[in-house]
Amino acid sequence: MPTLDDILEHIGEFNFFQKQAFCFLCLLSAAFAPIYVGIVFLGFTPDHHCFNPGVAELSKRCGWSLEEELNYTEPGLGVPEDIFTRQCRRYDVNWNQTALSCMDPLANFTSNRSHIPLTTCQDGWVYDTPGSSIVTEFNLVCADSWKVDLFQSCVNVGFFLGSVGTGYMADRFGRKVCLLITIFITSLSGVLMAISPNYASMLIFRFLQGLVSKGSWASAYILITEFVGAAYRRTVGILFQMSFAVGLVMLSGIAYVIPHWRWLQLTVTLPTFFFLLYYWCVPESPRWLLSQKKNAKAIKIMEHIAQKNGKQLPANLKTLSLEDDDDTEKLSPSFGDLFRTPQMRKHTFILMYIWFSGSVLYQGIIMYMGATAVNLHLDFLYSSLVEFPASFIIIFTIDRVGRRYPLATSNFIGGVVCLILIFIPDDIHWLKVTLACLSRLGITTVIQMICLVNAELYPTFVRNLGVMVCSSLCDVGGIIAPFIVFRLTEIWHKLPLILFAVIGLLATGMVLLLPETKGKVLPETIEDVENLGKRKPKNTKIFLQTEKSKDMGN
């Protein structure tokens, strides 16, 4: 009985239908970017200082400029390193006294400013920005600055918890059903987040968006890879991930034009409701239908694909199967299989760490560049552009060089560049941005390549489970990345780079412990995995050379 791949060879493995579906679904991949890293603009923390009504009145009476007002009334200005005092403390004095001098108002209280008591910003803050963010609206600074970390961690918790549920939905009810449901919930929760009246409700909708948005991206990824033939599957998967970079570039432009977070959130969310049109544009996966024994529907979709591609389904291929051998015994996967044998244990622990480290560095570098940027939008744009060459590097090297060395090199670049950044002076901004982009190029290559390597190191019957378990550590990395960046930056602004360097360089060494899978047949059993990377013993042949006597022929 012919397989679905056999039929795709006749009706087109990547023709008009597949290209059309690919373009449609890539739009969804691009729209996922604001959800994944939108914190850079939604949670932007501008320079700020305490608001004091008495100071405002005195400044108006004296005719001070903003610079003069800060110089006369704000603590910590003479110590550049003391950012906390400058942004989170104010002098505990009565600024409403009429006897205060406009030339040196603090002289009325003491001759030494350091003796004046300080207090918290009881009346709020003044933010040096023309726009707004969740930070400026909900005052997520100083004692409440950790709430920005929680905002980003919340979406990653949603990714982590939702991956299991949406994965089950896609396998149980179909890729298309899962795609449409998650699109609707993602869009609705995004709108509700934009109109949230307070921080708590915004956090709930942010979590809900994370709970389903990664599922919609994964469903689209599965759909497009199941529509194309085997020869195009890998390239299409990489290009689908590259469309995420298109979303990053677009996000930087939209955020520049729309500097107010609520309008920005609505702008990137409302168009996603149009993805519900996939109901008419994208059919169900014929591979999933075959796995559910719905062969008639699968054949009908294959006929639709053939018609779109200008081909005709051959008469002798009106029946099909999912696999070449329907009688093959099916093995039931279990979590214990991932740790049952030495090689399986090694692969699982190493892959889990690579997923974790890749996520920490990827999200961490993006947030770190946002937190330390001189020009937020341009720095974000430059670092987003490097994701395009990362995809092409994978396409052109993975079958020529292999998997292990490019993956190790990419981890090394991501880690060692962070180490170099520690020693770059802050005033050489162009060099800092260039090196940060180079580090992001390396770690982006890791993120895109590990998907392929992960699948190639597990046997068929436990492959999906292995990828799901290992990649869940990516979400764990995303949960802690904001706290690493924002909390450590408050201690010393280069401290996160030290941790990134250690994590990346450790991942480099661990990748080299994995076997090379280039040119290897995908393992079918655990025994195949145990034999991966082992050299086959050479056949030792002994040749006996005999010299015939010259007299022999006589």
UniProtKB/TrEMBL annotation:
Record flagged with keyword NADP: no
Keywords linked to the UniProt accession: Cell membrane, Glycoprotein, Ion transport, Membrane, Transmembrane, Transmembrane helix, Transport
A GO-annotated cellular component: lateral plasma membrane
Protein's UniProt name: Solute carrier family 22 member 1-like isoform X2
GO molecular-function terms, A-Z: (R)-carnitine transmembrane transporter activity; acetylcholine transmembrane transporter activity; monoamine transmembrane transporter activity; organic anion transmembrane transporter activity; prostaglandin transmembrane transporter activity; putrescine transmembrane transporter activity; pyrimidine nucleoside transmembrane transporter activity; spermidine transmembrane transporter activity
Reactions catalysed, as given in the entry: (R)-adrenaline(out) = (R)-adrenaline(in); putrescine(out) = putrescine(in); prostaglandin F2alpha(out) = prostaglandin F2alpha(in); spermidine(in) = spermidine(out)
Pfam families: Sugar_tr (PF00083)
InterPro entries, alphabetized: MFS_dom (IPR020846), MFS_sugar_transport-like (IPR005828), MFS_trans_sf (IPR036259), Orgcat_transp/SVOP (IPR004749), Sugar_transporter_CS (IPR005829)
UniProt entry tagged with the keyword Transmembrane helix: yes
PANTHER family, alphabetized: SOLUTE CARRIER FAMILY 22 MEMBER (PTHR24064)
Subcellular location, record wording: Basal cell membrane; Basolateral cell membrane
Domain Major facilitator superfamily (MFS) profile: 100-519
GO term, biological process aspect, one: cellular detoxification
Membrane topology: Multi-pass membrane protein
The family this protein is said to belong to: Belongs to the major facilitator (TC 2.A.1) superfamily. Organic cation transporter (TC 2.A.1.19) family.
Transmembrane segments: 21-44, 150-170, 177-197, 203-224, 236-257, 263-282, 350-374, 380-398, 405-424, 465-485, 491-514
